[in-house]
Specification:
The structure holds 3 protein chains of 3 kinds. Chain A is an all-alpha fold. Chain A has a single domain (2-263), classed as MetI-like (MetI-like fold), CATH 1.10.3720. Helix content of chain A is 77%, strand content 0%. Chain A has 12 helices and no strands. Chain B is 44% helix and 16% strand. Chain B contains 13 helices and 11 strands. Chain B has a 5-stranded mixed sheet with strand order 8-7-9-6-10. The longest helix of chain B has 27 residues, at 2-28. By secondary structure, chain C is an all-alpha fold. Chain C has helices at residues 12-42, 58-65, 67-100, 104-116, 119-130, 135-142, 156-181, 184-192, 197-225, 229-235, 242-252, 256-282, 285-291. Classes of the chains: A mainly alpha, B alpha/beta, C mainly alpha. Chains in contact: A-B, A-C, B-C. The B-C interface holds B 72, 74-75, 77-78, 81, 101, 104-106, 167, 173, 175, 208, 211-217, 219-220, 223-224, 227-229, 340-341, 344-345, 348-349, 351-352 and C 47-51, 68, 120, 123-124, 127-128, 131-134, 151, 153-154, 232-233, 236-238, 240, 245, 248-255.
């Protein structure tokens, strides 16, 4: 920061951030605390400590199998969205043709359509096309609801990226391919990171749509969690949620480290 | 030594062959070997009970593989509706209202006692739509109150309006079939009927200011009762007993307005490719074995007449017994199915 | 700066097409059935999911004239605007500090945390915090600010708080990603020209970060206006957000035609606001591309 600031201002600023981050973390902290509670009542503060619920969570195939599926699904959906969404966002941001507003609205619409409607519609679609229940429908559904986040985020990313750099590369006789991979993509890495995180998290945590698309051999973790609560309410669920938190944290920290390195290069 | 080994090997070999042919012969005896049927499930404990008492039995006896697909009843209905040409489910599990919607939508077919022998063992009062849906458990809502905080336990649904419970009452709204049952009970007890629910709505309006919340989610009420956030509720009796087992200091009271039974049914889906196996499933799910297991683990009422409960389980299960079941009012759920939309709208307007 | 105008002008349109087609084709294909079905079913006169025939706009008329539904739509839109603006205000300083300051990696971790919590678990967590037997009450009574537990759950305020909390990461991350792309030299230049921090923010940073704020706001608005699980469970009877009513019609009452009409109206409102945010972002495009790195 290039300015001189009063110590008081800096202190207030730091305090604001600490409080904000604490509030952001609060529900997660409470859940993690409850996951160690030795009494079977889902409560905080915990009455005694135990790892029993984690053991139970890891021993429940409904949770472990669906966790793996959710990770695979989220990865695929995110990859597809980034692959298809990045060029689309670029085109939407760079060009000023009239029809493009409509296109942008179309690409944004999946997250506005109520999950119920999208779910039933996708069921019909899968039936028409002969895809049947299961992974295919889930993938289509998750792809279509992660794409809007990618596009919206990258549009804002591209708008800060100066065209002059691209034109400069072109004038140096770089092919479009080179321009993309040497100039454009490295500059929008923060946007790609954000978009990727949004997409992954949206897919991984999605319940409302997924409930329609799951089948007996393809069920996602949030759906299993949502349904297990209907008939059993012990901290096993908190343990499952806590595991997800730990893994998410690990992934975010790792990915950021990788992306950070990239920016230095 | 070598000779001995050879004869030993021969004996082992003969035994192996015998064992193999014996098992394959035995396997060939299984009627539906290799057949798979798909059923919609609930998630959680209840699914486990079904796996243990239905899926396993069918697999051992008939070679049928049962796949239980997790999901809500509404999403299962949607799946069934959108897969008529190639049904997503072979057996559909529904409640009183969804059953009627499924029948009217042409999704399910009726079965006879010849096809499903255990049908004869069901309480006649519970067979509300003939062979279209076979009930496999019954549940009722009862009053729950927190013994640590409530000095004057409520004796009726109407008591929930007592000012001393202010802010500590949690009930189902009309999206839950339990909530609908409460509405009907209140109407019946206050001069109304199924066709004139005005008195019921009026009572709910009185209860309104006392409400911490009204919800369609049993999970939420369960959690709030467990944590002592609400002290008084009208909730599934089986769940209240589950909470008591967990050590939550709850008392349970049968409301003066009476009990309304909510059944869950198994129905044969039209167009299923595994009719025979599906019928076996339905037969097993209404069997005494399954009925007893459900009663024991989640305290829902058995629908099979031949089931007798041991005393310590009996006191936790509602409804149970010929007398009690005969005394419960029979509700015309077809009327409910047709009118619930406008009832929900009225609730929304009243309770804002 | 209107895009490529020099070398590859002749193949520009093909290029544009090539960039867009995969995404558009995929989405159109996948959405085709749901949207067509939605529109058709909303125009049936019946109130059932089967036995449908004929045409009627009755459901739309009801949706737009019945005070229960129209009122809910108005309220829900208002709530969504409040949440969007509230999260934008809170997110801007946080996003900026996270982009520029130290401990970026850890800040990212905290920001993503609410997104990692599954909906149902999130709600349980809030019940544990805001309930009468919960954390907040224990703390407030412990420091004697309260002598009786107060009911913080179940009401409009709580719903907005939880919705805001759940969706604020989208705002923070959007802003963070654009601020990262703003050249720090610009801020230094402004400081060297004796601009104080507030002026720099106002004249330099905020205009440049506008696309990020617009992107985050679009996402938060859309998510809030169509949220139903959180309002249903945390709101109690009195909140009645629009998507909860849609859920009631589609899933409980099985009145698919009416539910479809409600859904299409929601779609129109949400996309309308999305366009608004887009336009606000575009208004500064020229400024951005001229000044950004």
């Amino acid at each position: 920061m290039p300015w001189q600031s009063s110590k008081l201002a800096l202190l207030a600023w730091a305090l604001f951030q600490v409080i904000a981050y604490f509030v952001l973390a609060l529900p997660s902290l409470v859940i993690i605390g409850a996951s160690f509670d030795s009494s079977s009542v889902f409560s905080f503060p915990p009455h005694g400590l135990t790892l029993a619920w984690y053991a139970r969570a890891l021993a429940t195939p409904a949770f472990t199998a669906s966790f793996v599926l959710s990770v695979e699904l989220a990865t695929l959906a995110t990859a597809l969205s980034l692959l298809l969404g990045t060029p689309a966002a670029y085109a939407l941001q760079r060009y000023r043709l009239p029809g493009l507003q409509v296109v942008q609205t179309l690409l944004l619409s999946p997250i506005v359509i109520p999950a119920i409607v999208l779910g039933i519609g996708l069921l019909m679609f899968c039936n028409l096309v002969g895809l049947g229940q299961g992974l295919a429908g889930l993938l289509l559904g998750h792809f279509v609801i992660t794409l809007p986040y990618v596009i919206r985020t990258l549009i804002s990313s591209f708008s800060l990226f100066d065209v002059v750099l691209e034109e400069a590369a072109q004038s140096l006789r770089a092919t479009r391919f080179v321009v993309w991979f040497r100039v454009i993509i490295p500059s929008i890495v923060p946007g790609l990171l954000s978009a990727g995180i949004f997409a992954f998290v949206t897919s991984f945590g999605n319940v409302a749509l997924s409930i329609f698309l799951v089948s007996s051999d393809a069920a996602t973790l949030p759906v299993q969690m949502f349904l297990s609560v209907e008939h059993s309410s012990d901290p096993t669920l908190a343990a499952v949620a806590s595991v997800v938190i730990f893994i998410t944290g690990a992934v975010v920290l790792t990915v950021d480290r990788l992306a950070g390195l990239q920016r230095l290069v | 030594m070598f000779l001995k080994f050879r004869s030993y090997a021969k004996h082992v070999g003969v035994l192996c062959v015998l064992a193999l042919t014996h098992t394959t012969a035995f396997a060939q005896q299984k009627e539906f070997d290799g057949t798979k049927i798909v059923v919609n499930g609930f998630g959680g404990n209840l699914d486990d009970v079904l796996v243990e008492n239905v899926s396993k039995v069918l697999k051992d006896k008939y070679g049928i593989t049962v796949e239980i697909v997790p999901g809500s009843m509404a999403s299962a209905f949607a799946k069934a509706m959108t897969s008529r040409s190639s049904p997503a489910f072979d057996v559909l599990i529904t409640d009183d209202i969804t059953l009627r919607s499924a029948k009217d939508a042409g999704l399910i077919e009726s079965v006879t006692a010849d096809e499903v022998p255990n049908m004869a063992q069901l309480y006649p009062n519970f067979i509300s739509l003939g062979g279209y849906g076979l009930p496999f458990f019954a549940s009722v809502t009862a009053l729950a109150y927190n013994k640590d905080h409530v000095k004057n336990p409520p004796q009726s649904l109407g008591d929930l309006a007592n000012p001393e419970f202010k802010g500590r009452v949690g009930i189902f709204n009309l999206e839950s079939i339990g909530g609908v049952g409460n509405l009907i009970s209140l109407a019946n007890a206050n001069g109304g009927s199924l066709n004139d629910l005005g008195p019921g709505f009026a009572k709910f309006k009185e209860i309104g200011p006392n409400l911490a919340t009204s919800t369609s989610s049993p999970v939420e009420l369960y959690n709030l009762l467990q944590r002592g956030e609400i002290w008084v509720s009208s909730f599934w009796s089986g769940r209240i007993n589950a909470l008591i087992d967990q050590g939550v200091p709850l008392g349970i009271v049968v409301p003066k307005e009476g009990l309304i039974g909510n059944l869950d049914f198994a129905s044969l889906v039209k167009g299923t490719k595994s009719r025979g196996a599906a019928l076996k499933f339905m037969d097993q799910i209404i069997s005494a074995q399954t009925s007893l297991a459900i009663a024991r683990s989640v305290y829902f009422g058995p629908t099979n007449k031949t089931v007798t409960l041991s005393p310590d389980i009996e006191k936790r299960v509602l409804p149970y017994g010929e007398k009690m079941i005969a005394s419960m009012p029979v509700v015309d759920w077809t009327v409910v199915a047709a009118n619930r939309g406008s009832w929900i709208e009225r609730w929304n307007r009243d309770m804002r | 700066m209107k895009g490529f105008t020099t070398r590859f002008a002749w193949s520009r349109d093909l290029y544009l097409l090539g960039l867009l087609t995969p995404a558009v084709a995929a989405v159109t294909l996948i959405l085709s059935v749901p949207i067509v079905w939605l529109v058709r079913i909303s125009l049936y006169p019946q109130n059932l999911p089967y036995g449908l025939s004929g045409w009627s706009a009755a459901h739309y008329i009801k949706a737009l004239t019945d005070s229960l539904y129209f009122g809910s739509l108005a309220r829900t839109t208002l709530y969504s605007v409040i949440v969007t603006v509230g999260t934008a205000i809170v997110s801007f300083p946080l996003g900026y500090a996270a982009a520029r300051g130290r401990l970026r990696r850890w800040k990212m971790f905290f920001i993503v945390l609410p997104l990692a919590l599954s909906l149902v678990v999130n709600i349980f967590g809030w019940i544990m915090i805001l309930g009468q037997n919960g954390l907040l009450n224990s703390v407030l009574m412990g420091v004697h600010l309260l002598d009786q537990p107060k009911q913080f759950l179940f009401g409009v305020g709580t719903v907005l708080l939880v919705l805001g909390h759940t969706y604020v990461p989208f705002q923070i991350l959007s802003i963070m990603s654009v601020v990262t792309q703003i050249d720090p030299m610009l801020e230094e230049a402004s400081a060297s020209l004796r601009g104080n921090r507030w002026t720099t923010f106002r004249r330099v940073i905020i205009p440049l970060a506008r696309p990020g704020i617009a992107a985050g706001s679009t996402i938060v608005f859309i998510l809030t206006v169509s949220s139903f699980i959180i309002p249903e469970l945390i709101g109690g009877a009195s909140v009645q957000m629009y998507a909860v009513l849609v859920f009631q019609q589609m899933m409980t009452v099985l009145n698919w035609p009416f539910g479809a009409a409600l859904s299409l109206i929601l779609l129109a409102v949400a996309l309308g606001f999305a366009r608004l945010f887009q336009a606000a972002a575009r208004a500064n495009e020229e400024l951005n591309s001229a000044v950004a790195k």
